Fold ABM domain-containing protein.
Amino acid sequence: MIYEYAYLSVAPGREKEFEQAVLAGSPILASADGCTSVDLYPDVETPGSYLLRIGWQTLEKHLVDFPASQQASEWAAAIEHFLVGEPVLRHFDATALT
């Protein structure tokens, strides 16, 4: 299993709308093949910024299968109009080393 970490910046004044859109859209994302979890965390040092953590069974499920899915386009339509700039994406193994 891997975690995708997406650092997102939201247009000023639209934070609550964005949070509601993520909450409403999370079942869409969670229904994607290989998605195991969806969590959103506000950045406590930078207002309007968030960390979206998505669990995937494999990196391939996210990078190959998901972009071609209907869920990908529905998820993007639900949140992309709130974003300022491109998300910063990173992927990490879910198994801790310690």
